[in-house]
């Protein structure tokens, strides 16, 4: 199942991003759909390769800064940026139908519910909170939080978004009040001043 063909999934253009994997047939919950394969590398090598990709992306923002490195264990990772790793094409979703699990040293994409034929096979990439702003999400699901982020971090993200929304509302309200005060001052400056008429005293003859 680590080869270029797979009995459960076929790959074609996706509305989420680039290419994606789609169910060839009905896939029951719990099915090991496809193995995430690639080059086994050390953590130090992971850091080195990741830095290269990020530096290249900073120099050329139009170039995709994709990293396909998947945590395997405390010592090693799997760099899935190889042609034979078709699992790298599976897209992220905030409303996934799959999850990843490491079974006997192998990384599997496993169905978390029944998947119907033609449905896109997706899972949550589980990115860290520290760099989530670099990874906007385009999954389009009703549950989308706007970023590719581990679901365990969603409460933290929503708290931050709430604080930011409250700050924007306060800033907008303060701006409206400031404009109203300025308009009042301007109106007061333009208003005609009332002149008091002096009474002429009549001298008695």
Task: Describe the structure concisely.
The chain has 205 residues and is α+β, with helices and mostly antiparallel strands. Helix content is 26%, strand content 21%.
Commentary on this structure:
This protein has 205 residues and is of the alpha+beta class. It has one domain (9-156): SET domain (Beta-clip-like). 26% of the residues lie in helices and 21% in strands.
What is the straight-line distance between the termini? 126 Å
CATH superfamily: SET domain
SS element count, helices: 2
Q: Poorly predicted ranges (pLDDT <50, ≥5 residues)?
A: none
| Oligomeric grouping of the chains | single chain
Output mean pLDDT: 89
Derived structural class: alpha+beta
Task: Indicate the topology.
Elements lengths: L8 E5 L5 E5 L8 E5 L2 E4 H17 L9 E3 L4 E4 L11 E2 L5 E6 L2 E6 L8 E4 L30 H37 L15
Parallel strand pairs: 7-10
Antiparallel strand pairs: 1-2, 2-10, 3-9, 4-6, 5-6, 8-9
Notable features of this structure?
205 residues, alpha+beta, Beta-clip-like, 4-stranded mixed β-sheet, 3-stranded antiparallel β-sheet, 10 strands, 26% helix, elongated
